[in-house]
Amino acid sequence: MRHPMPFGADYTPERTVFRLWAPQAAEVKLQRFCTGSDEEPGARFLGEVSMKGPVEGVFTYTAPGNLKNEYYQYILTDSDGNVIWSADPWALACGVNGQRSMVVDLAETDPSGWAGDRGPDLAGKAPVIWETHVRDFSSDPRSGVTPANRGKYLAFTEGDTTLDGAGEVPTCLNYLKKLGVTHIQLMPIFDYGSVDERHPERGYNWGYDPENYNVPEGSYSSDPCHGEVRIRECKEMIQAIHRAGLGVVMDVVYNHTYRSDSWLARTAPGEYYRTMPDGSPANASGCGNETASDRPPFREYMLASLCYWAQEYHVDGFRFDLMAVHDVETMNLIRATLDRLPGGERLLTYGEPWSALPTRMHPEAIPAGKAAVRQFNSRLGIFCDDTRNALVGSPFTVFEKGYANGNPSDKLAERVRAAAHGWCDRARMGYANNPGQILQYVSCHDNYALWDRLTIEEGAQNYDCMEPHRLQCCKLASGMCLTMPGIGFFLSGEEFGRTKQGDGNSYQGPEDLNRLDWGRTEQFADLVEWYRGLLGLREWLVPMGRLQPERAKGDYLEVPDNCVGFRLGGEGPWSTFLVYYNPYETGKPVTLPAGEWQLLCDGQHSDLWKADAPPVVSGGWMLPPVSAVVLGQV
Fold first, then answer.
1. 470-484, pLDDT tens digit by residue?
2. 23 in Cβ contact with 271 (< 8 Å)
3. How far is CA 23 from the centre of its chain?
């Protein structure tokens, strides 16, 4: 079932109905074109017609005949005679660089077997999310992806890629199928404005600058000049990821647009954005404009857009950029609305519980930030920067170390104990509704990659050296994240020492700095195996393996100094688990609870649990230095 949009171009082979909400316009004309720009071969103006209306601010026109793949724009005149042109903010397809909208037959963009396509059903298990950028994923010349598909949607459809010159070392989707994550989070894939789609090789951007919210980005397609191509290839990418047994989370940026003079602003001035008292754009996003989710027009736009991506593109969840620019009521309504879609209860929803600057939302509205988490729907999650800062230090104080990389202070140890029970920093006061709301992470696209941060802290300059202590700090930090209750999350390549050569904000490139270096999977094979073993082990941990509404039932264990230890229930072969964190560079003695315990992860090797007979320990035992350790009782 295709989700109906309230406005835009509603196509059938017999006619296309155009609808536009333009409450300040006195007249709207529809212009039609053969191409998405005047620079393309065959460019031709097909005519102009006045639309009917307005009726409650809505202009309509029904065009007879088959308009499939025609392009269009609107000419709006206000009551003072001012004239402005605009693309359609509700468009489902567009031409090159998003400057003209396109009429599209969505049924013809469906890949073979699309009707049966569906993401994984985790049956309540806690996801582990791997964040990547479409271009970064496959741009490496050694990725094994065919040159034409590198950096494109179609790279994900090449399922058996291996590292060039390295035999059977898997890369790209072939690699991910074996890693053990459950979802790929794709940095923005809607149409964004900062890269010239005609010449994407001349520029690079992460894509947090929306141009057309309901259209895939054209620079990732094989042909950005024909609007139907990007739609079909985006669907083929999602279908390939689903066939690999993984879900797709879409990174969405509804808190601001690429420019203040957006299609939303041109067609309905003053309706979709917040403003300062002097009428200038509000700036909670830090990007020059701030959308108004607390007002009906933009709230309804967000809801319709999200439902459209969920149903038309089969995405499995949404990550909200700067979620605190939005209000709690809207975010809870989004969760409730998605739940009503067929299969909607399995969709993930989470976001950054902060804004760049204070918002200008209505005084009675509540920003969807950390302070309001207890008012969230229990399945609306947050990135826990409190845990990240405790484990490796704040990204804003890069030389200030965290618990896992050299600062096992009383304060940080207490924060780690709180996180180990599925809480964030304010844990004991009821900071979240349940552990399943918390995303535990130590690196994402923002700020320094984990390997780079540890390198900088050490005063080193060689980001390509597999330094042993740095490697062990990586293992401890990731071991803690993946054995704490909640949703696991990490930046693509974190598991093979991803480096951006010390660049903490690489959003504009260059490409060769941002792209995944698949050769590091071979160089850092030990670290990759560490992550893989942990991802398999956490399937047996309770509540790590489940999104439970109740709190983690673990008990704290007696440990020396500022080590951390706790007990958890288990599944399968092990009824109970013991988890220990030792941040010190020396071994620390502990007395294990009564009974015999199998050593499943010793801080160096996370796959001991796979053995037919893992090592057994009991009584007094020495925690290895700088280690995350897991033991299980049969």
1. 999 999 999 999 998
2. yes
3. 34
- Element (DSSP H or E) covering residue 336: helix 328-339
> Measured between alpha carbons, how far is 210 from 298 in angstroms, rounded to an integer?
14
- Helix ranges, 227-325 (H): 227-243, 263-267, 296-312
Per the CB < 8 A criterion, the answer to whether 406 and 625 are in contact is no
Q: Tell me how far CA of residue 70 lies from CA of 102, 292, 320, 340, 463, in angstroms.
A: 6, 32, 33, 34, 50
How do residues 193-242 score in pLDDT, each as one tens digit? Answer: 999 999 999 999 999 999 999 999 999 999 999 999 999 999 999 999 99
Q: What is the CB neighbour count within 10 angstroms for residue 396?
A: 9
Residue with tokens 């502990």: 590
CA angle 484, 490, 493 (to 5 degrees): 140
DSSP 539: G
> In 3-state terms, the chain is what percent helix, strand and coil (to 5)?
30, 25, 50
Alpha-helical segments (H) within 420-510: 450-457, 468-481
Closest-CA residue to 492 (of 84, 173, 27, 54): 173
pLDDT digits 0-9 by tens, 6-55? 999 999 999 999 999 999 999 999 999 999 999 999 999 999 999 999 99
CA-to-CA distance for 172 and 362, rounded, in angstroms? 45
pLDDT, tens digit (0-9, with 9 covering 90-100), for 58-117: 999 999 999 999 999 999 999 999 999 999 999 999 999 999 999 999 999 999 999 999
Q: Which two tokens stand for residue 462?
A: 């060689």
Coil, strand or helix at 568: strand
Tokens of 226: 């024909």
Judge whether 295 and 301 are in contact, CB under 8 Å.
no
Q: Whole-angstrom Cα distance, residue 569 to residue 555?
A: 10
Token duo for residue 484:
């704490």
CA distance 274 to 283: 8
Dist. CA 197–CA 508, nearest whole Å? 15
* Alpha carbon distance, N-terminus to C-terminus of the chain: 48
Mind giving me the DSSP string for 190-209? EEESSS-TT-GGG------S
Active site (catalytic) residues: 321, 352
Q: Please, which pLDDT band fits residue 553 given cuts at 50, 70 and 90?
A: very low
Q: Say how far apart CA 538 and CA 531 lie, in whole Å.
A: 11
Displacement of CA 624 from its chain's centroid (Å) = 35
